[in-house]
Write a structure and sequence with these properties.
4-stranded mixed beta sheet, binds zinc ion, two-stranded antiparallel ribbon, disordered C terminus, alpha/beta
Length: 257
């Protein structure tokens, strides 16, 4: 009888856990018809004696479209699962609490920006369903991981998350390819989870400076930056990032718009 009760109890726990586990969001993958034509000069005629080229022609690769590859999508799905499972981790919340010192927003909440940031975070952590995502494939150069406009697509009230649209962002597919090949401090999927969370918070209205100076923009304890980094490190203080005030040995640092 006792064992039955234990089984029933553990079943209940299992179901409760399944009930609250946040499923990864529905993603709409999109891309734009970017022209990524790479052109180079090719020598057509050379001086026979000096071998100096005196006539060139321009050779361009055929127009190709930047879109999502299977392995990129796979990494993003993995990152989304990481984000979904970490956003309600106590260690992540503690990490943000410890390191987030500045709160900036493009909106005027009824409460302080800091309090609104926590409303938003806590709403995300307790929500049972994510807003849907639009993820754009983009080539953003070598140092930028992602990009999102500052909006107020979703926001937290005291006890729930409200949203009035999809969370939209662009992710740098070139950077994703580089990360697939090489894990840094965190795994590639963990870093991407941090980037997606960072961009998501932009879409929820949170900002950091965009001066172009890395120190000013990313190392001053801005909520958006810290929150993304705490997701990537799962709140860990030992394998983490410079924005959390720790060493960065052997790690490449990227700008995230
Ligand atoms: Zn940013």
């Amino acid at each position: 009888m006792k064992s039955l009760r234990i089984i029933a109890f553990s079943l209940m726990i299992t179901f409760t856990l399944i009930g609250v586990a946040l499923a990864a969001p529905k993603i709409t993958w999109y891309y734009q018809n970017d022209d990524v034509r790479g052109c180079r000069k090719e020598c057509v005629s050379r001086d026979v004696i000096t071998r100096t080229c005196w006539q060139y022609r321009e050779v361009c690769n055929r127009r190709s479209v930047v879109t999502w590859s299977g392995s990129q999508k796979e990494l993003v799905q993995k990152a989304m699962n990481i984000l979904s499972s970490r956003v309600d981790n106590r260690s992540v919340r503690k990490c943000i609490q410890r390191h987030a010192k500045r709160f900036r927003g493009a909106y005027a909440p009824k409460v302080s920006l800091e309090r609104q940031a926590w409303h938003d975070f806590d709403a995300l952590a307790s929500v049972s369903r994510w807003p849907e995502f639009n993820l754009g494939a983009k080539v953003l150069g070598t140092s930028t991981q992602g990009r999102a406009s500052i909006g107020r697509v979703a926001y937290g009230t005291r006890d729930q998350l409200k949203w009035n649209g999809r969370i939209s962002m662009e992710l740098n597919v070139t950077a994703i390819d580089q990360n697939i090949r090489r894990d840094g401090f965190n795994t590639a999927a963990e870093d991407l989870a941090g980037t997606i969370f960072h961009e998501m918070l932009h879409q929820m209205g949170h900002e950091h400076p965009n001066s172009g100076d890395y120190n000013t923009d990313y190392l001053q304890g801005h909520f958006v930056v810290v929150a993304g980094d705490c997701i990537a490190s799962n709140g860990s203080e030992t394998r983490t990032s410079r924005s959390l005030g720790l060493a960065s040995s052997g790690r490449r640092w990227h700008r995230i718009d």
